[in-house]
Amino acid sequence: MGRSPCCEKAHTNKGAWTKEEDDRLTAYIRAHGEGCWRSLPKAAGLLRCGKSCRLRWINYLRPDLKRGNFTEEEDELIIKLHNLLGNKWSLIAGRLPGRTDNEIKNYWNTHIRRKLLNRGIDPATHRPINEAAQDASTISFAASAVKEEEKSGYGEKDIKRSVQERCPDLNLELTISPPYQNQNEPLKKTGVVSLCFACSSGLQNGKDCSCRISSIGSSSSTGSSAPGYDFLGMKSAVLDYRSLETK
DNA sequence: AATATACCCAACCGCACCCAG
DNA sequence: ACTGGGTGCGGTTGGGTATAT
Predict the structure, then answer these.
(1) For strand C, is any atom closer than 7 Å to the CB of A62?
(2) Where in this chain does the record put each HTH myb-type domain (predicted)?
(3) Domain count, chain A
(4) Which terminal Cβ of chain A has fewer Cβ within 10 Å, N or C?
(5) Is A50 within a domain?
(6) Strand C nucleotides in reach of protein CB atoms, 7 A cut-off
(7) Is A31 contained in some domain?
């Protein structure tokens, strides 16, 4: 059977958009708003697939887009979010106003990957490359949940549902486990260790480390005795995902 | 100056999810 | 419960541009 194609490919333009097409699309969306992408091309007089129109608008024509280079702060935020979320570019983009998932994905693949590799960090696991190779254990909640479910023999849908059940609407109240804890390194006597991103990525006391002072004597805002980790500037063992809503 | 190579990014493709019927 | 249309997402590709040889 198969699904019907999203558009009549024989009569649609492909490739780069012309100025005229951009103008038509922009004018139409300004007049009628977003949505109904399937019927939009015809209504707007465009020989384009609806998906293509949506992509062009979202990634290029939207007036609230922030063009230009990523700042150092954006870089670090992307790295932190990727460490937590993995390749969930749309979720990451949701935390970077004016940036699109496609833009962030491209930026990750062309700049940040290399940046992390230069730091000796595996961009996939956010752990030092040599150790990431030795131990492929997971670093994110979702990934570890998937791994657990895989062991138990559930299918992909079950896995996703399970993650979703644990994280309804991604309003997750997660306890973030440290991405890596060197077994040979004893915990600080207080038993409460607040790790900055550099440390949690395996660069303890590196030049990017910002927790050398805060790691002593700080405690989790939850008041629990569990170790707290400084993530996204929140010295807490719990990350509230309600602030990570999707677009 | 010409050619090769690397890099960047817009756009495409296929799949999965959501939801109305 | 099932089906199919609409939409969103992530991976990949291809063409343009910059840099190296």
Answers:
(1) no
(2) 9-61, 62-116
(3) 1
(4) N
(5) yes
(6) 4-12, 15-16
(7) yes
For A26, the domain range is 9-61
Q: How far is the CA of A185 from the C1' of C8 (A)?
A: 44
The answer to whether the beta carbon of residue A16 comes closer than 7 angstroms to any atom of strand B is: yes
Over range A218-241, report the average pLDDT.
36
Q: Establish if A34 belongs to a structural domain.
A: yes
Distance A15 CA to C20 C1' (A): 29
Nucleotide nearest to A87 (CA to C1'): C10
A196-217: pLDDT as tens digits: 444 444 333 344 444 333 333 3
| Region of poorest pLDDT, from A47-61, A117-131, A160-174 | A160-174
Q: What is the CATH number of the domain that holds A30?
A: 1.10.10.60
Q: 3-class secondary structure for chain A?
A: CCCCCCCCHHHCCCCCCCHHHHHHHHHHHHHHCCCCCCCHHHHHCCCCCHHHHHHHHHHHHCCCCCCCCCCHHHHHHHHHHHHHHCCCHHHHHHCCCCCCHHHHHHHHHHHHHHHHHHCCEECCCCEEHHHHHHCCCCCCHHHHHHHHHHHHCCCHHHHHHHHHHHCHHHCCEEECCCCCCCCCCCCCCCCCCCCCHHHHCCCCCCCCCCCCCCCCCCCCCCCCCCCCEEECCEEECEEEHHHHCCC
Question: Is strand C in 7 Å reach of the CB of A102?
Answer: yes
Residues 69-98 of A with CB under 7 A from strand C: 87-91
Residue A161 placed within a domain: no
